Amino acid sequence: MMDGPRSDVGRWGGNPLQPPTTPSPEPEPEPDRRFRRGGGGRSFWARCCGCCSCRNVADDDWGPEPSDSRGRGSSSGTRRPGSRGSDSRQPVSRGSGVNAAGDGTIREGMLVVTGVDLLSSRSDQNRQEHHTDEYEYDELIVRRGQPFRMLLLLSRTYESSDRITLELLIGNNPEVGKGTHVIIPVGKGGSGGWKAQVTKASGQTLNLRVHTSPNAIIGKFQFTVRTQSDAGEFQLPFDPRNEIYILFNPWCPEDIVYVDHEDWRQEYVLNESGRIYYGTEAQIGERTWNYGQFDHGVLDACLYILDRRGMPYGGRGDPVSVSRVISAMVNSLDDNGVLIGNWSGDYSRGTNPSAWVGSVEILLSYLRTGYSVPYGQCWVFAGVTTTVLRCLGLATRTVTNFNSAHDTDTSLTMDIYFDENMKPLEHLNHDSVWNFHVWNDCWMKRPDLPSGFDGWQVVDATPQETSSDLSPLSHLTLGIFCCGPCSVESIKNGLVYMKYDTPFIFAEVNSDKVYWQRQDDGSFKIVYVEEKAIGTLIVTKAIGSNMREDITYLYKHPEGSDAERKAVETAAAHGSKPNVYANRGSAEDVAMQVEAQDAVMGQDLMVSVMLTNHSSSRRTVKLHLYLSVTFYTGVTGTIFKETKKEVELAPGASDRVTMPVAYKEYRPHLVDQGAMLLNVSGHVKESGQVLAKQHTFRLRTPDLSLTLLGAAVVGQECEVQIVFKNPLPVTLTNVVFRLEGSGLQRPKILNVGDIGGNETVTLRQTFVPVRPGPRQLIASLDSPQLSQVHGVIQVDVAPAPGDRGFFSDAGGDSHLGETIPMASRGGA
């Protein structure tokens, strides 16, 4: 773990750029010892069931408590993600088949349940109707508020005098009042929307239709059946094969996560891949991300996350509370959550955040080991959050905000400080403007807020600031690194007093950039306010296509409009500097525009500034250009090139100031993302006007070229070819490829060694599709010298001959660290 939440230099403003201390991943557990520590080797029910644990459970509604700082107490933590079905240990029941006397004797005439068929096959009606047929699980997975069917096999014919009761239980000590013990009398009205009806009785088989509550707790429930007859009472023993997963239901109008658009549900709940955008507003990059929410083990990992935070089971039916806990647990700060953040540039003890191509490998590693996974940055946190929330049934999308502000002092403005000559004072610039920042929107009603704030809610799992909001689960989130859910409508209107974490998110999208200049007496004066510099573009993947959708209008009123100005100034009035707008600058008649050509990694580049005199008089401008590398978080390195020039402008005239930059000049200074920051400042001699502008641009990296060699059919081996050309004149060392795609290939790591300068390489890989339909196969390349290289290909998979359906293991086991020889190499 990191020494502190602000220890990595590429993340926080005001830190000098210096050799980093690498955040350390947690050490790998010792497999033999882990089951001996803290009762980790006890059976599943002994840890999750009070009556089976040989001890009293005082806390009757909390998730499994970690037995040490790594949270070994959760049942899911000891599951092997690649295994099929439920826990393989011998099932333990709360009551084996017993009669009313409790002596275990089966009397003649008793109504004994000899078997249960939950119709849980992925091809059965239950899974199809509940839109859960893609989950690579054999257990029944249903969505709350929607009926499902089951069959009971009985020892004799069902009679009208017989009484049957279904029971669902979850948690350490289930209670009816908390919704963790659900009792459903068959043929009678249940409570809270739960009920069961006999639809057909044929011989010794009973067909039931079971209705679940639209407010049900989500999670994995134990299931049992009780019968009562004149001959006595019987209870079916618990069987892990009969466990039932219940999820949120965007298809149910009574569920507060309901989404009234089928194309939205297809995209934001069922789509297993998506696009994440990065770069700068002028140079938008995109990468495909494999969410993989239906891959086997992922659903268990999502529930394990709630267990690790110790979230009370009684609160797991509330999407507001669930999404808030997820925002805290996807990052590792405070709670040993899923991902360790690292912005230092040194990823030698883990995975470069740019190398991930999806969430599956990350979540399965966390489930398998219980240790936080190294490393993540904002798009990784957001990609994993989308996976988790979609998996649990919440309509969720990944959102990118370009020029995203990080306000450290709750002023709701971005304050940038300069010396007397308008050179940046980086040691004072604690606020930072990220080139881009990625978070999530999820859809739900907000019964905890006044009317008008339903719909999209922001959830941000990237650890930036600790939460100060109080909530029903404040003991889980107060003062820790979590953010949201926050109504997008409250952000749009500057209602920063609305929960949760609205002031911070508002500043990310709609604050102003305030430039302060140091005066001769040491004081600071506002010399320029840039009103359109923050939240300049907010985008997400469009529904039903790979196009980019601009959703800025949802977060902001039109820039410069009265409504937008009112929102900003209303929000600022609640900040720490409420009078910042009282002192505005003078009229401006010299305009400045910064330009950068489309720069490519490894090549020379050119930046330029265009000055235009809009006045009727001559103007003299003293212009300063300072160029430095920058992390995408806005944290800058030292200035490595600068230019100063005085420009004479006739009335109505324009002039351009250029600064060429050679590859050899910027190469020694490059950091993650290949981004650079141009600080431009100037002074108009005649009018006293101050010019100030920050312009960020990035160096483009090449894509991987993927080609499918032959048709893709379920269960049949298929081959893909990957081609890459090194754009740099230097050797790439320790090159690693990653390859994965839901329904195609479990996460696979390929070590390919070194790739020479300007060299082209080709490699081929085989995979066996396990699910039909359109799929995305995604690849990435990473090395110490070059990252942010990825590619994708769509694979249309045909059903297996004879329509054999799914295979039991999705694409085989993950392959980690496999050494792959290149098929061919070529020069430039």
From TrEMBL:
One Gene Ontology molecular-function label: protein-glutamine gamma-glutamyltransferase activity
Main localization is: membrane
Q: What's one GO BP annotation on this UniProt entry?
A: keratinization
The top EC class is transferase
Report biased composition (Low complexity) as residue ranges: 72-89
Where found in the cell?
Answer: Membrane
Q: Where is the active site?
A: C378, H437, D460
The entry's keywords: Acyltransferase, Calcium, Keratinization, Lipoprotein, Membrane, Metal-binding, Palmitate, Phosphoprotein, Transferase
Q: What is its EC number?
A: 2.3.2.13
Bias (Pro residues) ranges: 17-26
Residues reported in the UniProt entry to bind Ca(2+): N510, D512, E559, E564
Question: Could you describe the subunit structure of this protein?
Answer: Interacts with PLAAT4.
**Which PANTHER family does the entry mention?**
PROTEIN-GLUTAMINE GAMMA-GLUTAMYLTRANSFERASE, PROTEIN-GLUTAMINE GAMMA-GLUTAMYLTRANSFERASE K
Family that this chain belongs to: Belongs to the transglutaminase superfamily. Transglutaminase family.
Q: What is this protein called?
A: Protein-glutamine gamma-glutamyltransferase K
The species is: Macaca mulatta
